[in-house]
Amino acid sequence: MKAGTMRSARIVVLIAAFACVLFLSPVTAIYGERRGRGRRAGYDEQSSSSACRRLQRLSTHEPSESESIRSEGGTFELSTEEDNEELECAGVAFFRKTIERDAMSLPQYAGADLLLYVVRGEGRLGIVFPGCPETYREDESSFQGRRSRRRSSERRGEEDDEDSSQKVRRIRRGDVIAIFAGAAYWSYNDGNEPLQMVAIADTSNPQNQNRRDYSSFPLAGPGSSSGGGGRREEEGEEESRGRRGVGNNILAGFNTRTLAQSLDVELETARRLQQNQHSRFFARVERGRRLSLPAPRSRSRSPYAGRQRQWGREDSAENGVEELVCPMRVKHNADNPEDADVYVRDGGRMNIVNRYKLPALKYLGLGAERVILRPRASFVPSWRMNAHAIMYVTRGEGRIEVVGDEGRSVFDGRVKEGQFIVIPQFYAVVKRAGEDGLEYITFTTSDNSYRSTLAGRQSVLKAMPEEVLRAAYRIDQNDARQVMRNREHDTLILPPSSSSLSGSGRYNQDQQQNVTSLLVQVA
What we know:
Layout: H1 2-22, H2 26-34, H3 45-54, E1 67-71, E2 74-79, H4 85-90, E3 93-99, E4 103-110, E5 113-120, E6 122-128, E7 136-137, H5 143-156, E8 164-165, E9 168-172, E10 175-179, E11 184-188, E12 195-202, E13 216-218, H6 229-234, E14 238-239, H7 256-263, H8 267-275, E15 282-284, H9 305-309, H10 321-324, E16 331-333, E17 342-344, E18 348-353, H11 361-364, E19 367-373, E20 378-384, E21 389-403, E22 409-416, E23 420-423, E24 428-444, E25 451-453, H12 466-473, H13 477-485, E26 493-494, H14 498-501, H15 505-522
Antiparallel strand pairs: 1-2, 1-14, 2-3, 3-12, 4-11, 4-13, 4-15, 5-10, 5-12, 6-9, 6-11, 7-8, 10-16, 17-18, 18-19, 19-24, 20-24, 20-25, 20-26, 21-22, 21-23, 21-24
């Protein structure tokens, strides 16, 4: 009797395991494959290292080197590896998107993982994950109530006319947002100012098996054969470059009858999906009308929360995918002072967004750092051990020095708002804010970036024996102890020195020369 009971229990366990495997959604397959794989797995290392070796000088760049699309609904600017050797070294593309008030960025999906940062404004963002249910609706009733109404409608054979969608997120300045390759997404500006975002596209990720350059696949807009030059002028759209990286409406490429049959709609409806939208990339909502979208819910009211608590009871038939994957958090605000990882009075602060703060990043292998430097403050000389960095200035200006692998300066100049610069892995860099301060977002090609520093409490020079410093740099004991101890209480951000505050230009010049000399010796 006991043996029979044990056999029955084993059979039940095996059936349950088989059901879990059978009903795993595409989401689990996609993201499970990413887990545990390094970003550089399958990466064309030879091409990347060749591009990095060719770098003789670094430069600041505007985001519109490859493509610039302007319309009355917004502006899209793109820089790709084809036009920027530094981006080729890092294996990413960079773009900036500005959406005007009451306008939207048309639905699309990208051929690479994206990491976005909201520079200014606020709005709504929708990301569609395959296999996740449309559980967000306009009414504010409970999830269980909606589900019971749907079941009762199905029993009566009635259609449920209530609008539904996957989660629509509220986004605002400072948000870092992760979007997976192939996931359809759209954004809408319902705020009172332009909504501007910058982003990197990880074209070197092994998930991008198509080609090693940025490509987007619009789900709306004109088709490839619908030139419509006169209409395009009416929409106020102009193109400064060729259509590099930005495609046309993929629905327009299908045979109209095939599309109508696939969607089970009238032929004319399918034709409208292919031809009605003449604006490319952006569309302005009709004047006097705003999109009615589901309101974001707090975490405590998430439709998945109750189902997680009831796991194994009345919802035991579910496969667990919706509870584990669909409510995955894909954004984190990096402008919150209370969440700062480094804070220095009169110096500034730094917010790090890595796989620990935003677990979705472990599937992308990307990260971000938000840094705000007060006037004349500086960021310690340092180099990244496991990532390239793409730095975009959001406000202010400052001076940057970068030293390359041959021990020579590859960049020594000023950066200002709206520019970006690529800092390759292992290149040593020091940053100093100008009179108005310096604020920037840095994207990293690692979800948990490490750096070594030449100053501060974690300085590599401080961690070495004094005799090693004296022998390596041929300095006396006093100089060695100053190098090791003068900054031992400082962190990554250095506040302005008393001499710089008093305006001693000669001191600042000598100090800058000393830092440059030290960077060259270490490199």
